[in-house]
Amino acid sequence: MSTLNVRVTTFDLPLSAALVRLSGDAGSLAGHPAAVLALAGAIAWTREVSDYSGNRWNCWQKHVAQDVAGITWQEFREQVLVHNPSLHETGGMFEAGRLYFLPENCLPANVAPLVAWDRELTGFAGNLWECWQQQVRGKVIGLSWDQFAAQFPDQYPGFGNQNSRLQPGTSYRLPRTLGADTFYLAAYTGVDGMCRWEGLPAGMYRLLVEADQYLPTTREIEIGQDGELTVGIELEPAPVERAAGFVEVKRDKAGVPRFFLNDKAFVFVGVNLRGLLHYGGDEWKHHDQNVLGASQPSDIDTQLQFAHEMGARVVRVFAACKHVPPEVVGDRLEKVLKTCHDKEMYVIAALTDLYENTPFHPQGDDGFYTAHGDGLTLINEQWFKGEYIVNYQRLLDHLVGRFAGHPNIFAWEIGNELKLDNQAEEFKRFNHKVARHIRDLDHNHMVTTGMISTQHVHMEPRPDLQRELYSSPDIDFLTVHAYNRHLPGEQPGEHDPRKGQKIHKNDDSQLAAEVGKPFIVEEAGIDADKSGRRGAAIGDDMKAWFERGAQGYMQWGFLATQFDNGDGDRNSGMDRGLFHDDWDELFRTYRDKAGRLAEQAGGLSPSPQQPVAPSNGKTPALLTFKAGQTVFTTKDVNLRQSPNGTVARLVDPATAVTILGESQQTNGFVWWKVRIGAEEGWMAQATGNTTLLSLA
After folding, report:
1. What is the DSSP string of 237-265?
2. Number of domains observed in the structure of the chain
3. From CA 689, how far away is CA 618, in angstroms rounded?
4. CA within 20 to 30 Å of 357's CA: 28, 145, 194, 586, which one?
5. In the chain, count of helices (H) and strands (E)?
6. Are residues 348 and 431 both part of a single domain?
7. pTM given for the model
8. Over the chain, what is the mean pLDDT?
9. pLDDT, tens digit, for every residue of 330-354?
């Protein structure tokens, strides 16, 4: 007998709570104690029970296990919560007097399942109950333990009573449901993405893997004799459709990935209003007075009004504050969003800050900052490797869940300038996990990292990691933080492969093009003492970035209040005479640029053939095939019976495929009818940022 290990991942990250079914014929699984009959439509959750109290396991044993075929304990344990939502209120415990729905075998009233006593059993030792439990229970429709115990002696008159034992040297015939010869095992993956079965005979099997919000996948496998096999299954996120009225990523007619709002291009200038949510908070009377101690609640309207008049369409805020709980942060964000809605402005909400010297991280996270040799105190390794769940995820869950339907959120930002030195792989995994968690909570809004650049997180020697980081379909666009682009010290350094190029060291525009996503200059500015009056310099900087493909440019340290409220910047900020004397010049520069961008956006529209993939615009530009053309699979690709339908089988990479006709768009994918040898079916042309069918 052999052992099978299955590891389920998405973007190389383990996926927990995925349902894995292993099916095989009667010769392979009918004799496995945990296997049950596989028969479509045989289960209905219609049996009413109101007199039971206890936990799910005892309910399974008392009401289901001995009477219902075609469902495993693992499936019952999870599905009973879906069919009985009231169990969530009681921690999964049943209470007498309440109505619950349990599974039962469902067949037409005039149809009785046909049972034949012809399944051969040899080598079994045990009493009749043990035979039932290990060899029959769950495998025969319409046959209960009582019926089995009564009918078995009819087949073997000399057997005796229930306590008599079956002998290993004797051959027996057991019951089976006629016409149903497939059986399966079921398990849910753990936090490591793994599940495991032992005691499997050699043979051919089929794996079916399903998880909420992912496309199901099947795979044929062969298990050898007396060995151990490990199979990896990669699940693709299911298509996600955003509601109308939300900013999203699509490709324009030229194939350029852009932001669109109601099918109109959204190219913008914006401002950073770091502490906007927390202006005038009571906490500043007692803590961090140097940060926002002088701020007033009225500053919110002042800041947004001036930004609006300047043409800013997006404002970036640091949502977290260590002095207040998530519920207070949510109330403050709601107030800001209301004002933004009135002005048709949109908010990027950063969910934490790398740096300890600001209060803009979740309440309770002070202990996850560690001093570095460079004099900075930054979020530490333990936080990235799992401790973020304690406070950060609580804030994230509250904000993202609460505002998932608010159209004035532009994007959720994982954090401001996060990095994890010398652990780029771990940093990538963290961003992927958090982005997926946000996407699970909110299908409407975009997600981004808030990074300075991939150079800042020390990925410049690993272009493969750079691409892997931003190829996640749950990360919608790239961010760049770039100041003083004209200075030599801000250009690629000695060990940067881009050395010698006249670009900013944080320029990730080429990476954005490679992964097929937009990027924005999320923080920008020029130090006043390094350029004189800065209007022309900012204008040149914007021109250079937009020519390199930026879809947004955001001034840092925007401060329109009459007095210093603590949210400006003495070096690269923009204010009305508090630290700088070029407000009017900068204001005109931004306003003029905003006007020109609006004119340009009016001439852009999304491609009419745009496939809105799960990644919402991250599908690469697709070729149009012709009937009769031969193309090739670039990786393992599912052949389906219909567009996005049942998987027929998994096709190996580099397999020649013949195109049979025109494409169809279903569930956000472009599908082609194809033929492989004598077999016909449907294949998706691309998913996420990965092309699945290619001419070469």
Report:
1. BPP--PPTTS-EEEEBTTS-EEEEETTEE
2. 3
3. 6
4. 586
5. 15, 40
6. yes
7. 0.62
8. 89
9. 999 999 999 999 999 999 999 999 9
